[in-house]
């Protein structure tokens, strides 16, 4: 049996892709970004798509599009835009995008799904976003039992160091049924890590850049590998000076602070310059740094290719976000990079999906009108 999910703020489909791989039937994706939705439609093919401002979307409209009614056993997932909470953003508590989390809460109350999932940057639960998040938790706890924590995507098979705030919730009446079935007072709702930085029994080692992207064919800056049947393996153009700069940085340890004096940028000669990862080269033997919307631009972070004098290609960035090669991005290189950087890593979403479906299946199979039903243990 396929369990239904609705994906708010769906973007290009990272969360939906992971939910599908975890066993969900994604019924609807909603986003205001037309370019991202072209990619979404191209990959999450069975889902309906609504290109609309979330503030104008009602629970009734979602019901009309999907057939999902208020109180049904389904997952309502949402990843509200988070630039105002991000370490890389402007960190503005008054940012209007921060308030979109309340639109998610509004739709939760209008539809009362059995299960909810929210993913965001850790800054939402501390610093600038702390008061907003506290308020969000209070509102959710009126009807839901929730658990949240900051998870590292690398611990779930994503070849990238990416810390995200993940919140899972179960409607209280459903939670009471589940705890009764399992004869326990509390359920662990968040997925357990399956990968580890260190060698540890029962865990796989973190996935590295080497094993993730180095089988792709070599390309030059500005080249698109169309002739080898690998979609989106295209890199941005670079000046000869920047190619020489990357080569020099790589030979001197991979950090732009070690570049020779004649290749050093004027803005980097100042003392106490921040953002030292810019123009850096990615290491092969560890997960990648956090993949952002600037993931194909060497001046936006440590996005220099490990062995070639260019930035990451779109396909390499997608793989480092844990998208498989069948997931094809649509748009120009800037639009595709934005879609990748803004996405939930599918493997992290898949881990959430498996955990939620475990309880969804347990609840549904033990609330059927069948006195001879068998109680499932997990």
Question: Could you describe the 3D structure shown?
Answer:
The chain has 378 residues and is of the alpha/beta class. It folds into two domains: 3-202 and 345-365, Vaccinia Virus protein VP39 (Rossmann fold), CATH 3.40.50; 209-342, DNA Methylase, subunit A, domain 2 (DNA Methylase, Chain A, domain 2, Alpha-Beta Complex). It has eleven helices and nine strands. Strands 3-2-1-4-5-7-6 form a seven-stranded mixed sheet, sandwiched between helices. A two-stranded parallel ribbon has the order 8-9. α1 (14-21) crosses α11. The longest helix has 20 residues, at 346-365. The protein is globular, with a radius of gyration of 22 Å. The model is unreliable at 370-378 (pLDDT under 50).
Could you name the key traits of this structure?
single chain, 378 residues, alpha/beta, Rossmann fold, DNA Methylase, Chain A, domain 2, 2 domains, seven-stranded mixed sheet, two-stranded parallel ribbon, 9 strands, globular
The CATH level-2 architecture of the largest domain is identified as 3-Layer(aba) Sandwich
* Rounded average pLDDT: 89
Secondary structure tally: strands: 9
Strand content: 5-15%
Task: Please identify the structural class as seen in this structure.
Answer: alpha/beta
Short synopsis of the structure:
With 378 residues, this protein is of the alpha/beta class. The protein has 11 helices and 9 strands.
